[in-house]
Design goal:
Radius of gyration: 34 Å
Shape: rod-shaped
Helix content: over 70%
Number of strands: 0
Length: about 90
């Protein structure tokens, strides 16, 4: 009887250690992936912030100089395409 109890106890402890190892490995991999995503998110936020700074600077420059985008200019004598009619 004590031999069977000791055997069952050994199996239970071994199984518990295996489950602990598997869950620890899964947790480690999850944390590692989360840190990777956090770094990517930080880089993306920096890019967005820099893009907003550049856009605001360009809009300020346009207001200061009174510059008109080339798309808004009309060249004298130039044929303006009509986007309302289908092309032939």
């Amino acid at each position: 009887m004590p031999n069977k109890t000791l055997n069952n106890l050994s199996i239970g402890i071994g199984l518990s250690l295996f489950v602990l190892l598997v869950s620890s490995t899964a947790s480690y991999l999850g944390i590692k992936e989360q840190n990777k995503h956090r770094r990517e998110l930080t880089a993306t936020r920096k890019i967005i912030s820099l893009s907003n700074i550049i856009l605001n600077s360009l809009q300020g420059l346009k207001r200061e100089t009174g510059a008109i985008c080339s798309q808004e200019r009309e060249l004298p004598g130039a044929i303006q395409p009509s986007f309302r009619e289908p092309a032939d």
